[in-house]
Amino acid sequence: VGLALSYAAPLVSLLGSFLTSFTETEKEMVSVERVLQYMDVPQEEVSGRQSLTGKWPVQGLVEFHNVTMRYIPTLPPALSNISFTIQEGTHVGVIGRTGAGKSSILNALFRLTPVCNGDIMVDGVNINHLPVRELRSRLAVVPQSPFLFHGSLRDNLDPLGLSEDWRIWEILEKCKVKAEVEIAGGLDSNVKESGCSFSVGQRQLLCLARALLKSSKILCLDECTANIDVHTASLLHNTISSECKGVTVITIAHRISTVLDLDSILILDRGILVEQGEPQRLLQDDSSIFSSFVSASK
């Protein structure tokens, strides 16, 4: 019995080590599967049938015509045969529950995911006919998670070096982040990896400054106030309201309060456009979906 017990103790330890190794192997296999998944992603079509000349877009008119989009062929569509028009110079909010397809609209507009059916027109030009890099360079976006790369602050704000310093400082002042940049050491100050030398709110304001420097007629906001405090969110929205007059602004919103003062809203549910119109008019209709959203958020 004593001999059996003396051999049993190391055996238990070996079994524990085996289970630990097996678990770690299972975890690492997820990484291998992800690599294989990315290897199967088709190469983006860089060239296009139609090239752009001059400044485009000039107006900022956005039209979706019967657009259907899927991330994976076996899954239900993220956007299902949706059609709408965003008039030039208007500020439009897109709302809906999680998984409704809000961010999918921007994915389709930037051609991050190809559409299965339908057409997306910007100023009367079918974006599927344009070189994808040129398309993305003509649109501005402020993402949900602000990103700054390692390098100088000037390179982060103006990667192509198209703006003069006075213009960059002017935009930083309008975005209420000029003082923080001066404290950090100016435009030549070194930004640490992921911009950790700035707070989340400051990084988001810097991303807004980068977007405004592009002077695009279309600005997309992808839940850009989701991870920042109320004060910074107010600064961001006030800046957009004052500096984006005549610019088409598409706001993917997670807070109902952020869309109440916009020109129009789109409400999605499971990839289907279920309601659209002016928010104040929809609020007056007790039977509207938007009215029920507002009541639920109180």
What structural class is derived from the secondary structure elements? alpha/beta
CATH homologous superfamily designation of the largest domain: P-loop containing nucleotide triphosphate hydrolases
- Unreliable segments of 5+ consecutive residues: none
Mean pLDDT: 88
Please estimate the helix content: 25-40%
Gap between N and C termini: 70 Å
The CATH first-level class of the largest domain comes to Alpha Beta
Q: Tell me the radius of gyration.
A: 24 Å
**Within the largest sheet, what's the order of strands?**
6-9-10-3-11-12
Multimer state: single chain
Kindly state the number of beta strands.
Answer: 12
CATH architecture of the largest domain: 3-Layer(aba) Sandwich
CATH topology of the largest domain: Rossmann fold
Structural domain count: 2
Largest sheet: 6 strands, mixed
Helical region count?
10
GO molecular function: ABC-type xenobiotic transporter activity; ATP binding; ATP hydrolysis activity
Catalytic activity: ATP + H2O + xenobioticSide 1 = ADP + phosphate + xenobioticSide 2
Protein name: ABC-type xenobiotic transporter
Enzyme class: translocase
